[in-house]
Specification:
7-stranded mixed sheet; 19 strands; alpha+beta
Length: 377
Amino acid sequence: MPVQFKGRIKLPLDLEGESRDYAHAAFGTPVVNAKLAAIFQELASNEVELIPVEVDSHAGPYFILNALRTFPCIDTEASSEVAYWREEDGIPEKVGKLFSISGMRIDPSKVGDAKVFRPSEWKGSLIVSEDIKDAMERAGITGAKFEAVTGPPTFDPVRRAETKKRAELWHQARHARAAVWQGLGTLSDDLYIPPVVGGPWPGERQNWIAIGRPDGHMLIVTDGLSDPFNDILDRPTAGFGLELAIETPEPLGEVWKSWPVHLLERVAYEVAEFEKLRVSLSNGTLSMEVDGVGMPETLITPEGRVAVLIGMETDALPSRFTLPGGEVRLLTVKALMPAELKWLLRQGRSAAAELIRRFHAAGESYLSRSWRQPVVS
């Protein structure tokens, strides 16, 4: 629908780079330059609104491209993969609506002669007609990428069935873990940490959850090391059978940019990548080092590393919980001071138990801080 703004809109620029004719601002908002705006003005003037905007450090002119029409037109049967919001997702108003879609196909009979629109079921997608696409390509428009939404389906029925089963197993594990996390404190959209697709995690999806604790601490947990393995579809599995947790009493600002999150990411990657580490963890605590880039200077060793102790027990967190695929251990990650790592390496294998005893004696427990007095000399 058309919108009215008082005054001029100014968009910040987060990253300098080559200027393009088409780009996205926050929330997938299309921003176009005068060259591309002219094409839409010529071919679909009644279907778009061009809202003038300023872009930091660029002369312009630039416009927000606002599509003015929506249609309920997605053909879910012809689309490759679709998933829907469920009751257990905890957002009642979204139940039954699309959660994700790939290989989208639309029913052209439901959009008439429209040249620019968004599907009402999935408004994040901007659909344009073939003649607009051709005009953009003839003009050498940069920044835009096209994907066909009409034509024969391209999905493999066997693969589609496998994907559906994989999603069901993943949802079971996700919701069982969510119940555990919700029992540990407050989950909020303000604490969102962006996930990463790919990597050595069992479900090839790296996810983290930030939880505000009742005492004001911040708890960060991995949320996927116990995902079902992608290649096992005949039964639920619990991945590596563990998740990691780091808790700090320190204020963190933007949680997803904070040092505990980055530290947990690096530790989790090592644990997921190397089976030898997971075997060692099954036998008790484990100390290890990760890259110290971007970490607080007080935690960085002379070699540029940061050390942690994994598996220190505490009554403040559950040590185990159960998923449909089996039992999962929740292992704490405690940041060590460089002096403590040096002492550990000097003392040898049995030193971890003594170090833990000293932590308890000093009232430090499993919490991680960017600075504190070492418990060894």
